[in-house]
Structures are given as C-alpha cells and as structure tokens.
Queue: 2 jobs
Job 1
Amino acid sequence: MSGALSAPETQEPVDGPAAPAVPAPAERAGGAGAGGPAVQAATPRRLTGIGIGSAAVLGPVALMAEPDPPPPAGLAPAGDGEHEAGRALAALETVAADLERRAGSAGPEAADVLEAQAMMARDPSLAEAVRALTDAGVAAERAVYEAFDGFREALAAAGGYLGARVADLDDLRARAVAVAAGRPMPGVPAREEPFVLVAKDLAPADTAVLDLTRVLALVTEQGGPTSHTAILARARGIPAVVGVAGVLGLADGETVMVDADDGLVLPSPAEQVVAATLARAKARREAARTGGDGTGPILAADGREVRLLANVGGGADVAAAVAAGARGVGLFRTELLYLGTLRPPTFEEQVAAYREVLDGFPGGLVVARTLDAGADKPLPFLPLGEEPNPALGVRGVRAFRGAYEHLLDTQLAALAAAAVDAPAELWVMAPMVTTAEEAAWFAAKAHAAGIAKAGVMIEVPAAALTAQEVLAEVDFASIGTNDLTQYTMAADRLLGSLGALQDAGHPAVLRLVALVAAAGAVLGKPVGVCGEAAADPRLAAELIRLGVTSLSMAPAAIPELRAALTK
Amino acid sequence: MPQRIVNVASRVGLHARPAAVFVKAASAAALPVTIAKEGKEPVSARSILAVLGLDVRGGEEVVLEADGDGAENVLEDLARLLTEDLEG
C-alpha cells in the first residue's frame, strides 16, 4: 500500500518537503518522465498509482471503454444504402448476441434485463427505422443512432418505469454505434475468463452490473484512496490500483501484472518479474495468514491497547466482521435502514435492526452513527432541497436541528431501547459536528434518551482544531478521515482528478488527528479513526503513534492490518 | 379484420418480463399481429420497443388484430396469454 502515500506519477507531489514517504519521482517512475513535460513512452514498462490491498495478480486487461460522442449528422456513408443497412444491422446483431451470451451466465434477474435488451437490439421496428435512414443516404453509425430517437422519446414521455428504461436504450445504442464504427463496446466488459478491469473510473452503476467473481483486480486512471473503486476493492478484498496515469493506453487483452502493495501496474511483464512479484505477494499473504488471526487488541509501542473494529451497514455484515476477527463495530452506518423507503423506519423496525448488530458482538462494543443525510443523498421524508455545494451544506447533524428533529429523537430512542439487555455495549455518535455547542446539544439529547455514551464524528477541521472544547462535551470521538481529508485539503472526495490531494497521510490531516488524539488523552476520552486511512497499514501505524485508541475499517481489511501491525 | 379485446392481467402491465413474453409469442406466431390501446395507433406486436412505448398498465384494455389464414387461432392464443399473470 505504499502508493497510498504517493501521488500518481504525472502529478506534482502534494507537498514537496513536508509530505512523508513520497519517493523521489525518478525512483517511482523508473525514469519515464514523471513530473517533467509529458513524455509518454509508447510502451511504458511500469505504471504507478495508489495501491489498495496487498495482493499481486497476473491477468488479461479488459478495458472498459468510454462511450463515444454521437456520430455527426453529416458522416459520409462507407457504401450505398444496402451496404450501410447491412453494417448497421450487423452491429445490432453483434450487440444482441453479446447480450444473450451474458444473459446465459447471469443470475435470473439480470438475465431478464439482458434478454430484454437483446430483444430490443433485434426489434423489427428498429430495423425498419434503420433501413429508412440508410436508404436516404445516412451512414450506418448515424442511422443506428437516429433510429433509436423515436423509441427513446416514447419511453421518456411515459416516465416512471419506462422512463428509467431510457438508460437501457442509451446503453444499447452506444454499444451498437461503437460496433458499427469498429470500436470496442462501452460499458462493463463481460468475459468468460477472469480479467483485470481497466477503466477511467468506476461508478456505482458500473459495479452493480459487474460480476466481481471474474475480476482479478481493478485498475483506474482516476480516483483516490477514498474513491468508489477503492472502497469497493477494500470491501470485497480485490486488489486495486487507482489514479494510474496512462493506464487507458493498455491494449485490450494484454497481460498485466498488478501489484497492489507497491501500487504498480506492469504491462507484458517478463517471466522473472512475474515470478518475483508473485513470490513476494505470497510471502505477504502467508504472513497475514499466520499473523492475521486473533481477535484481541493491538499493543501500541507505549503499551496502550488499540482495538481493531469493523465498519458495518447492518446485520448482514456481522458474520464477515466476526470472521475477520473484529470484536466490535467502530462505525455502524445506520443510514442503510433509511434508504429506498418512502417513510422513515418505525421505532420497532429500528430496534430490531440495531439489536441484530448488537447481538453479533457479545462482550464487545458497537459504535452507531446516527443517520447521515445531506442534499447529495436525499431521503423522501427528509427533503433538504437543492444546494449548490452539498458537501458544505445542511448535512449530518445539521439536518436534524429544527423541522426534522423528531427523526433523530426516534432514532435515539430506538438505539437506547436496542441496547437494553444487549450483549454488546452501545455508543452513539453524531456525524458532521462542527462546534462544541453542537456536540453539547447532541450529547444532552442522547443521554436524555438513555444512551450511556454519546460522542461525535470529527470530520470538520473546525471540530478538530477545537477538539479540547468539543471532547469536553461528549464521552468519545471518532475521526472520519475521508471527510476530514476532503475538508482539510479542499478536495472533493468524488473528483477523481483530485486523487493526489485526497491523501489522509498529508501532514495537514495528520496534525489535526494528533490534536484530537491529544485532547482525548488529556480528557481521558477514547478517540478512534473510522475512515479508509485506518485500513492502510503504514498510515494505521502512524495513527496509533499519534494516540488514537481504535481503528475501524471494512471487515476484509482487518486480518491484513492485524498482521502488518503485529509483525 | 379479426380482433380481440382483452384486459391485461399482469399487475405491472405490458412492461418488463410480461412485455418480453408477449412479444416473443407474437414473433413466433404465423401471422403479423398488431396491438393497440385507446388513444394510440396500433403497433406491431413483434416490436418490444413499440409495445413498451404503448405503456399498457395492468388491467388496461388492448385490441389485438391480425388478418389471414389462421388469424382467429393466433389471436386466441395471444389473448389468452395476456389474461395470464406473466410476471413469475
């Protein structure tokens, strides 16, 4: 995971002298023009980025092509009308056959969708519309593009379920246009053989249709350590390298070595390189297997005990967390209960859901975060309106002061009720707290509801800088390094192009962490970390040195971290 | 021209799976069949895109039409299909 502390090679180091553990550019890039004027070698021998995980794999590249721009209206046809019609219909048939093939290996629900898409590609009315256009002298690509227009409009006009199918139609159209133009089909590639997925970036919509059992590794040109790809890779234990400049130049099907530990992508590697890299990864894996067992706390250099806890979304994650050796939960994201419903979950539904998690950790600890909402994740019963900048808007605890306070009251009451006679201890914290006054307001509410320990998330630099005052009002704090990094570095977490700035290991972020940990030590109050930084072995060691008392992460990351910290 | 008027039984209407099942059956039929609903032009029952575009909801009435030898049988089969729940 060394890459987690270093910038992608074509970008300037984040902060020259002060940034820790950023090797000299020449060292990282193998002399391939890093930092200098863009001299992209025709066949770069190594590409570097930010590694997620520690595994190394060898496999064929499957490129996720970006959709092409629409073919221009005046595009010259390659032949006469008959020839163009033939090209257009052949492209549609290729797409239909591909969809059918994928339907054959998909689950029943996905198969229905894929088969319906294949039927659309073979639709006789669509073929008629294509022919009418090619007969009028329109080029095949453009004819395919325009032929979809009428159907697209009809579906869009219907709205509702059919309106949502417009995206399916657009996906189909982009595929057929690409095939007609002799280019790879856009979208998540489907292969029989396991592959290394190479993409510009991955959105949740892409990974939802991705069969992860066939994915050996994820490699993206954009994205940082907290990007969707990185979080998915950690959660599923798939090695990944993100923020890899130049990776889209790899050829589809080319063999690459992906070494997540060093943040390396090696195209067409020599045999001895493959053998050495795989041997190193195997040694790491074995060290993790022998050192990663166990469930106890880690012992810091000064003799303090540091708990390794799991991030969970609900009862469904408990088994994986326990199997990974977590004796508790450092971040229970309660918002999953609230998503996808038109009304807030009832008191009883909440008690049952919270209890399910508490029951999984007898003798342990569960830290629940109250509902985290914002304009970027709107809930039907919590309309926060449009905001020009949701990251700086009415979000987290801010959303529950005023009209929606009753939602928080119900949640606190349900959490308190779930904790009665539960086998695990329950702590409850509020997200996105900025001031000591907010901290005091929340703690008073939580205590009044019957919750024994009330705390706050430290994600806002203001709260970190006034940690003494904030912690004085509560029983504990947990540092959310993803948002703390975003706000400290003024770099949007969702912007792949700012991956290099989304560095939780930057001294600016680490100094804030140190302030909070020191305040906790003075006041005798626990201070945990529950961002992605906690899962990075080198960063985790630094966080422990700074004085944090627990680290919470995706369950899949726990054994490896335990092994790294105990060796 | 022979026709059948039928209420669509599937709760989701002629969307998703029911639409695909119906269009597949119509494509396999010996004769071309059209399907229409009130206020919209008849469309080919072999076109999934056109059938979806009709936006037929559960319980709505549609008119099936076909012409030629065996039209009655073809219509009978397709009409019966629409009175079944095709969501399963």
Job 2
Amino acid sequence: MKRAAAIMLALSLALGLNGCGSGLTIFSNYRRLENIELVRTVTADAEGGDITATVYSDAGKESDPRMYQRTASSIGVALGELQLMALGRVALLSHTENMLIGEELAAESLGECLDYVERYSEMRLDTGLMIVREGTARELVSGLSGPDAPSSDVIKGFADNISRAGQGYVFSCREIIASLCENGYALAMCVAGEKAEDKLFESRGELDIRPRGLAVLTAEGISGFLDDEETTGALLVLSKYRSKDMDIPVGDTVVTLDLDGFETQVRPVFDREGALRGMKIKLHVSANIINLSGTAEVSRRDYRERAQDELSRELREAIEAAVGRSQEMGIDFLDLRGFAARAEPIKLQDMPGSFEEALPDLEVEVTAESSIRRTYDIMDPPQTAKDKEVKNPWENLIESLRDS
Amino acid sequence: MFRKNTEKPRTPGPGGAGTVSAAGIAGVFRDCYDFELRKLRLGGEGLEVALAFVDGLVSGGDISEQVIRPLTEARRFPAGTTAQGAMESMLSGSVYAYTAKKRQNLEEAVDDILNGYCAVIFDGEGVAVTFEVKTDQRRSVEAPKEEKVVKGSKDAFVETMKTNTSLVRRKLHNPHLKIRDFSVGEKSKTALTLIYIEGFTNPEMVEEAAKRISAIECEGALNSGIIESGLVDNPRSPFPQVLHTERVDKFCLNLLEGRFGVLVDGIPFGFLAPGTFSQFLKVPEDHTQHFLVASALTLLRYFSVALTLLAPAFYVAVAMYHQEMIPTRLMLSMIEAKQQVPFPTAMEALMMLLAFELLQEAGIRLPSPIGETVSIIGALIVGQSAVEASVVSPVVVVVIALAGIAGYTMPNQDLGAALRICRFILVLMAIALGMFGISLGCALLVYHLAGLESYGVPYMTPFAGSEGREFSRALLRRSFQVKRDREPALRTGPGGEAKL
C-alpha cells in the first residue's frame, strides 16, 4: 500500500514536470470559462482569390454579440488568425450552429470549407450549411443583426423552422459531406437577404433571411439550382418535410391545406433482360383544411375530392419537375439509385451499364394521392381509421393485399 | 486509538491468582467506591461468610430478599452447619436466585461480580457461590430512531444483549437459530454473540466469523468500529463491508437470506455479514411497499450514487476542458455567470465542496435545533450571499447541492461517507485530466470495488461474479407472490429456497 501510494505520488509529481502544464492542469485543452467567446455563426466569402471568414460570437446577455473578420488564403488560416483578434478571449468554434457560404466561394471551393469542418476537431458536423445567393454571406448576416436580435438567433430560428414551415430544409455538413462522399452529389439550402420593409419590431435588422431553393453540389462545386417547385418535389421525395402549408384553388375558392403526413414509395422497374426501364414514385399525403377564402361547404364530399385532386396534381407536378431537372442535369440528387438499391439490390447490381447512364432516359411514373382528414367543420367530424375499417373492411383488406 | 496490548496480563490483586478470598476480592476492587463487601453469619449465629457485589450492577432489593434473608434464616442454616453443607444447600435452592454458580477461581468470581452477580465467599474454603441479581435498570425496547418505516415493526435493538437476543428469538421461532457467545476486549470483557440459522447460513462462513471474532484484540470493545474492523476482510477500504441495523425485522430477514449476525452487549444495533454493495442500497421500506414502488426507489438510489459521485467531477471536467459538450444556451448563461467570479472553476468547485462538508459537519456536531439552524443558514444565506457577491457562480452551487442531496439518499451513512471521499478524488482527477481523469478514477474505483470480498462473497455481487439475470435481484424487488431463491453468492445450505 505504501509503495502504491509512493508510486502514485511520484507519478503525479512527474506529470506536473512534463512541460505541458498550464496552471492547475497538464491538459492542453484547458480554457477558462469566462474567457470564452462562443462562436455561433461563421460566414465565408471569396475575396480576390482569398477567403474572408467572419465569425459572430456571443458571450452571454451582458455582452453584445461581436463580429470578427479575417481574410487569408484558406478558411482554416482565416479562422485561426481570428483568435488573435479576440481581445484576450478564446473564440470557441464548437458551438457553431450555422455556416453560411457566399455563392461565389461555394462555386469555387466549397470542398475546402467542408474539408475544414470535417477535419478540424473543434467544428461540429451537425453545423447547418447554407449558400447565400444575391450578395455575400457577410452582408446578409450583418444585415440581419438588430439591437435586440442577434443575427445568430435569427439564423438559428430560420434553420429550425424552415422545414416545419415547408419552405426548405437546412442540410447539415454531415449530410452534405456524407452524400458527396457516397454519391458524388448533395443538396444544400440556398438563402438570400431581403429588405425588411414590414418590420414588426424596431429591434430587428435591416434584412430578412429568405429561402431561395436548393443548390445541387458536386465535388467540383455548384452544378445548378432548384427553383421553388423543384425544391418542393425534391424534398417530398427525400421525405424532408415535417409539414407544409399550401394554397389550393378549388373552383371560386382557395383552400389552405396543412400537409402533415408524407409517405413516399419509390420502386424500380426492370425489364425481362434485367435492364432498368423506369421508376415508380408514389406519394401519399394527408392534409387538413386550415383556412378557406370564399364560401364553400368544405364538408361536402365532392368539394373535398376536388381539393384532394387539386392537391395531388400540384404535388405530382412538383415531383415531376424535380425528376425532370435531375434527368436534365444527369445528377441523381433525388437518390433514386438509393431507393432502387434498397428495393432490388441484386437486380441493380446485375443491370447492364450504370444507373447514372440510365438516369436521363428513365421513364419515371409519378403518382400522388392525397386525403383530407380533417376539415375542422362542425358538421364533419374527423374520420378515424376505426371508422374506415367498420365501414368497409373488405376494401381495406384488398387494398392492403394489393399493396403487399 | 486502541493499540494492541503486548504486555502480560497483570495478576488480579494481592489475593493471588486462583484463590478466592474476601481479602483477594477486596484487593482487586480496591479504590472502587461502588464495591461492597459485607460480613454475614449463616443462620444469624453460624458460620461467617462475606457477601461481595458492585452496587449499581445489582438490585439491592433482590439481594436483600433473595440472598441475605434466606442466608440469615436459622431454619435453613442451623448452628453447626459446615461450610461444605452450606454451599450444597445454597446450590440446591436454599437461596432464591435463579442462577447460582460455584467459583473456586478468583478471576471467575470477579467476572461474575462485574456481570451483576453477588458472591458469597467462604474464606476458609477458598470458594465462592455467586448468584445473579442483576438490576433491571436498562433501556426499554423502543421504536427505531434511524431506520423508521411506516408499515413496519416498532421494536429496535437496545444496549442489553439478552434483550436483543430475545427480540430475535421472538421473530424467529426456530430451534435452528443458533446463538454462540464470545467475550471481546481484554479489559472490558464485552459479551458478543454470533447468530445464524443452522442449515441456512454457510457453515464455513460461520466458522470464519467465529475465528475472526476470537482474533479481535483490543482492550475494550465499546464501539462498533472495533467489532466491524475485526469482522471485515478489507479494513483499509473506505466502503462498508458489514451492514448494521437497529431494526430487528431487518436483522432477521437477513438471517433468513443466509447471512449471519453479530450482537454486541452495549451496542444498540446488530451487524450483518457478508455485506455486499447492493445490500447497502436497500432500505426496510423495500419490504413494506408495493414492489413496483420499491423497485423504482431502488433504481433512484442507484442513480443517486452516480449523481453524488460524478456530478461535481463532470461539471469541472466539462467547464474546464470539454466546453463543446455544453448546450449553447446553457453555455451562454454559464459564461455570463462566470464573468464576475474571480476564481477559476477548479477552485470554485473545491471551495464549495469543502464548504458543504463544513456545514454538514457543523450540523451534525451541534445539538439538534442549533444544528438544523446552522444547516439552513449555511444553505440559504451563505450560498445565496456567495452567489450574489460573485464568489462562486450559481451553477457550481446547484451542482454541489445536487450532489450533496443525492448523497443524502444513501440508506447507509458509511456508504455515503465513502462516496464523499471518492467524490473529492474524482474532482481532483477531473481538474487534472478532465474526462480522462474521470474515466481513470472510475476505472480505479471499479477495480477496487470488484476486488473486494466479504467472506468469499464478491462485494459487487450480483454485478460481478454472477450471471446477468441476477442483476434484477439488486436493482428491483420482485413481488412476494414469486417464490425467491436466496442469493447464490451466499452459498446457503440445502433447501435454499425461501419465501421471504
């Protein structure tokens, strides 16, 4: 026991003498909590062959958010040099919530930025990545900041709510890097700043952040952009929506539907020789009526069916638009190959030629079904699964057999 | 505290060893103001004897009525009665005392006198006859003070050995309940009993316990520490290895599970061994509450162990080295709170831990009402003032208080104290090496605990040294409708199934 205690004591003394020490500790990762400047947003823009990195930090309610900027040959060097500007504080990148990259830089060297996120241990892979169109990322983020609304909070609120609002989806660096490594392509959310004319609060900044579709990324950079309809189609196929509100014209009225349930089935179609002939994309959406412009009896069956047909048509067109864009670009950003691989792995492996070669000529059949579950009309109680089963059990059975 | 006595036992006074005489006994008890030696004549006018006893240990009324009155009656001891005849008469019932012993050895006679006997000494014969006339001045059986339960029996052990053994006998009407007696302490001669159920408790365990009790060397076995250190396998470990309880029902339940118990005269609780870690996290309520409630509370106590042990160390490691683990909002409030605090996190945590221990110690040592006041003042005023004066940040106060409260849920205070020591060590390791330090500390702790054994039973049973299905025995309490077999690690005897 005495010997063990002596060895422990000697070792602890030796640890203190190894030259790596900093104050109480020998661990080089030591940072004093009160000296930390928490970086929440990072932007990167191209600047005459160099990269300008800007970080927006926070140090609690008592201190105003700070912005540091540095231009260097690479984003790593720029962010490293920012430490020198932090006025004796430590700029901690581990809490970076979002990274915004200017369109010009993304087109030139997006891979470098992603490489930095991937390799630098302080950065988190779940950092959201957005590409800023129509201007630089720095201008957008600076314009968002108001006296009581730090730009980091505004961007975080946007990223958290955009998929709930059904207007886009902020892909994380992890998703983008993984998709680029596995498939050679990825999608990224695009945003732009708009002048905030209808400012609800004086404390907000001069700009509002708005979605601008999706960017299709490859190893070379940006290959193209998807417009709103194509974005909707792509995100429906990829099941990235949590809900979505859509205005659907039905006769003289416009009904607002809240889409709250999405189910996408994608199956490949092979011919007898084993060649991939096409894909079948089947979408089923459930929706609720949340608003009505005009006068109509929404509980009537024919009105509901017309609204469902109209919704199905719009969604089908959105998916067809996304598929068409994918075939036009020759980039499988809808991950149709992945769907095919999961459904028919052996056939896909044995098919002549590659999927990418077959993609432009694939016959893609898109079907969309929608059902309005609730109209919130007092005369129209919600139809439950139980009611459905009682009314027509044989139909349900036949339908389930057909599906299987 | 007590050192091993290497001196030879001294001869008991001028009377010389072995010979019983009034002078010898008086010599042994010289300068003892409570010792009484009185001359009597048997039958009033016959043979002269001496009556010796210690006032306070014996009942004056009982001596007068049961011993002196019969001895002085002429019809019992007529004139001319010889010493031999008188002794035979006394031993055959002339004296009303229920226990009578013939002593020819001075040491035995002195022991009897010290145990509440009075001795009638025949000087010429070198013999004494001793009668048990103990006083009834003892604490009555009361409800448990430390281990209270709502739906449980209300009898607790007292300081008197015979009362305690009778309490056990009243709970277990079984002839296989064996009570072996021992005497511990060279000077105190404290009575100690080893209690077990023959056929249930592993006989090797019982023999080992008897061996260890006999080997206890001390001058006075007047506190539990001496007995406990003599019973355990690893006296150097801070973790308790012997369970102690003041509850008779808990004592008996453990006997039924195959453990053995030890009762010590003068100590109002019983010891139970072998003690395992999981045993220290069980409370008497476990057997009175619904099994789901009891299981949930047991799991909560395990969670408390982790919390009290790791919370401060985890906070220190995360705040000093691994800030990336803290959620952004929490991190912002922590940074903000820390801006005004002049001390580093390590110092803050150590200061608060120390302050907590000081308050706790002050609360225990002071008399009850003052102690409670000090605790409240300490917790509320000092803590709040420290935060307001920016001496410590509020998160540290919360973390340390949380760890302290979690520590209070430990049913066994010895286990709580051991965890407090480990908590300090883990904090120091976290200060030096962050999460790696905590990992290292936990590995060493597990290594230490897994290496402990109590009478051949692994201390971490059933988490170590048993199959996984035994885990539920420690973590949950099964329904009484399910017939339980006894803990395999205790290696109980045949018929090892008991519905408890």
